[in-house]
């Protein structure tokens, strides 16, 4: 596919680095899951790395991200520390959500990472609201909202696209179309499978993107984000991608043809970029091994951190159900009948 | 609001107006809150005063606009989301329960949701089953939420501001039969943590909230004519429940009737009864009485609807039974 590369100089190496980080991180997660260090539901992003790396490439540190239960990749690329993510999956107090969320609920306020939502479609309204808050407060920021093709079947998707378009809110809807809502193929659950077309019906600027080509994703996301920042309202990218692994660690993957999986693996976004970069002499095997070593060290450090991190004391079980900060109401004569200033 | 008095509806409107004047982060959002003036005319005139950005009409998309309220709260605003009625809040349950109530905990304390959701509740207006639910007891089941039921003009006027100051989500249930309630409210601060004793007495404690408080007070007056002095507790806060006020009253009267417009099974009245048994069992001189809605979808016909929910006469009869048992 011919792609006009608008991404900045040196971007390819960056994109490769981020994709490799996600891939290697999750490969280690699989081992840790088998070793019962990580429990619960765990959904792997392997195969879809170009989407997180490419979309986040278009974001600034001030932008917000709302994500799904398949969010390790988004969190890593958004600079949520790998140590805090790993410790969270270990259920430790040093985890980014203090062990209360696990793999599906990575949250990080300093990086404006609003979760890890495990209800399909449940994050979309949050993204609309975050963008609305930016509008109210005069901040020119983008809220990127990741969700899958499954979410397009939810009512919340349709409500939110309409609302975001009606109010022209700065939301980048990043639909990761990996063709399966858990085990149900897109064509078996949607009468109209052109998701960009459906988004466009809400007067949202929308187009499909080859989600296995990280440069194409970065290019499209950059154009969309630029347009959003210029006030053109929400944009929708249908990122056509594929997960190489099962839906979750529990999934025996009976519903996909092995040949189909192998076919998609030939389009591995990491291999594709390496091939292209090698051809353009942007990287060689030595360069690659430097990247791999750096990543491996980061992951080792994250695992060592998670291993030694203390667990949250059981006495703190009920913390964060309500805020620790004292509630001001009731102590001041506000809302009193005579009180209008 | 004049010297001669105000209505519950006007008190609520004044509360919103005052909050929006005080804090520019506050805005009102919901179905027909703007041009229509609010389905129950609570927000009448606010669009003209504050404009369409801050008095924001939404499409009929409960999940999206409630969730957008949550997102806006995360983004630093102090939204007041109006859901037309509790019946429609079912379309936003995912956002209320899976997001508003869980985000603070699930994020390890990072993301609080300072959001106020107001909605009408209750039966008694011949609106039939789909417009007559009383589900506030259901919401009171959910950790992470604060549930309020203003039953007086003071609470209609005063509960909103402390709710907006609360760093966590607050749901305010306004009983539909109360909007026309009128009178001169007592001045003074209002808290959102305690139940209130609306009438003192030593023979029985009548526990009510929202739409049944007025009926229960009328019943207490009638009982007084029979030399039964009832203490009436207005719960005000359905979560977290004010156990202290309840148990102290039970310690004085030793007899209890809980009046609840919700269905009996798995209800708020069941929760309150259990707590009394757990915390004040030896204070009781008689089994706890409960008067709840009949376990039917609320019917349209006036005589059937009246028979389905607590009324002054049935409260009197139920209280008498507890006192004489």
Automatic annotation (TrEMBL), chain A:
Residues passing through the membrane, by range: none
Keyword Transcription set for record: no
MF term (GO), any: magnesium ion binding
Pfam families assigned: E1_dh (PF00676)
Domain of life: Bacteria
Keyword list, A-Z: Oxidoreductase, Pyruvate, Thiamine pyrophosphate
Protein name: Pyruvate dehydrogenase E1 component subunit alpha
The organism of origin for this protein: Streptosporangium canum
From TrEMBL, chain B:
Cofactor: thiamine diphosphate
Residue span(s) of domain Transketolase-like pyrimidine-binding: 6-181
GO molecular function: magnesium ion binding; oxidoreductase activity
SMART domains to which the protein is assigned, alphabetical: Transket_pyr
InterPro entries on file: THDP-binding, Transketo_C/PFOR_II, Transketolase-like_Pyr-bd, Transketolase_C
Keywords: Oxidoreductase, Pyruvate, Thiamine pyrophosphate
Protein name: Pyruvate dehydrogenase E1 component beta subunit
Species this protein is from: Streptosporangium canum
Lineage of source species: Bacteria, Bacillati, Actinomycetota, Actinomycetes, Streptosporangiales
